[in-house]
Amino acid sequence: MTEKMIRVMWAERPNELELRHLPLQEVGVNDVLIQVGKAGICPWDLRAFSGLSSSVAFPRVLGHEMAGVVAAVGENVKFIKPGQRVVPDMGVKCGVCKACRSGRENRCQNPHFQQFGGGFADYVRVPEKNVHIIKQPSTSLKAAAFTEPLSCVVRGQNMLRLYPGEVELVAGLGPIGLMHLQVAKAFGARVIASDPVQERLVKAKELGADWIVNPKETDVAGMIKDVTSGWGVDAAVVTVGSARLVEDIVPMLAPGGRINIFAGIYPKDQLHIDPNLIHYGEFIITGSADSTPADFNVALNMIESGQVNTEILISHMLPLEELGKGFEIVKSLKGLKVMLDINDLE
Ligand SMILES: [Zn+2]
Ligand SMILES: [Zn+2]
To answer: What span, in angstroms and rounded, lies between the C-alpha atoms of 24 and 191?
Structure first.
């Protein structure tokens, strides 16, 4: 019997990418084999590929934002069936550590990420418990491929504990910021969307931003004072890795204001904030990173219900072999989400 060969975009070491044909591994008894349809490129993938993340081991197949179709299931798999359209959660959690047992699976002490290979390939394998079924036939795989980044956004917005009618500032309107905007709206907030790139502001308006502001042209603090009658913003999320931006935004918070440092900040940096602002303002400064299976479930529901439009965030669709070009586009910060169309599945 001849082995079935699959394509993977292999990174032997940082900054080295090649198309390899590897034999398709047998699916483990508890695992699900998924033929990848669409896979998004995340800035995290670029950072890891560039060798800037010390926690990422090589060789490696990157890619953790995808959707596809179940090709085969292991003999112990009970609920997932071949042919189902699904989204795999590539973060495989141990389920028994203190983090997992306290509802913070995103901080699992024993994650198995590498073992299962990444999504820049024809197929991926994950345990059955990591497979989320797409319920609506009308939900496209390219829309569903945003489930992972959206799950992080959902977690980030939950941290802000919004009340309907509050005003939130979303700083940075890349694909992530444009999802924060939509989730904040779905949670009942009014949103001020801020970014120096004009096209992104236009997109934010289209997606329901109540106010848009270009910090290169307008004094954001003054604008916030105007639209909130001097109160400030009840919540803010910083989606770009900039300590200066965090320092700028903290004084714009209203009494009781919450701010989420959503993006990692590299190179490492320090914050300089007058602690009296936090004390007298009763501010909550928080962060959020990655997501739990519950966040994943909410994210996919929000895509399927149409509350978050993700397809509109795709600026480039490339074949698998052009992953390197995709990384270049992400690096150049042009456009929005760069996605790979891997097996022409819809
Ligand atoms: Zn990602
Ligand atoms: Zn764990």
So the answer is: 47
- Are 58 and 16 in the same domain? yes
Residue 211 lies in a domain: yes
Please, is 104 exposed, middle or buried when counting C-beta atoms within 10 Å of its C-beta (0-12, 13-18, 19+)? middle
Domain span holding position 235: 151-287
Q: What is the pLDDT of residues 197-227, one digit of tens each?
A: 999 999 999 999 999 999 999 999 999 999 9
Residue 317 shares a structural domain with residue 238: no
In a domain, 265, yes or no: yes
Give the ligand at the shortest distance from the Cα of 48. 1
**DSSP strands (E only) in 245-321:** 253-261, 284-287, 314-319
| CATH code of the domain in which 88 resides | 3.90.180.10
> Residue 233: inside a domain, yes or no?
yes
Cα 98 to ligand 1 centre (Å):
24
pTM surpassing 0.90?
A: yes
Give residue 227 CA to ligand 1 midpoint distance, Å.
Answer: 33
Alpha carbon of 74 to ligand 1 centroid (Å): 27
User: How many domains does the chain divide into?
Assistant: 2
Query: Looking at this protein, which amino acid is placed at residue 160?
Result: L
* Cα 338 to ligand 1 centroid, rounded to whole Å: 12
The span from the CA of 218 to the CA of 195, in Å, is 11
Residue 306 makes CB contacts below 8 A (sequence gap 6+) with: none
Radius of gyration of the chain (CA): 21
Q: Rounded CA gap, 123 and 76, in Å?
A: 20
Residue 297 within a domain? no
Question: Which stretches of the chain drop beneath a pLDDT of 50?
Answer: none
Question: Residue 217 and residue 161: Cα distance in Å, rounded?
Answer: 31
CATH number at residue 271: 3.40.50.720
Q: Are residues 217 and 318 in the same domain?
A: no
11 and 139 belong to one structural domain:
yes
Cα 187 to middle of ligand 2, angstroms? 29
- Give residue 24 CA to ligand 1 midpoint distance, Å: 25
CA–CA separation, 293 vs 316, rounded Å? 28
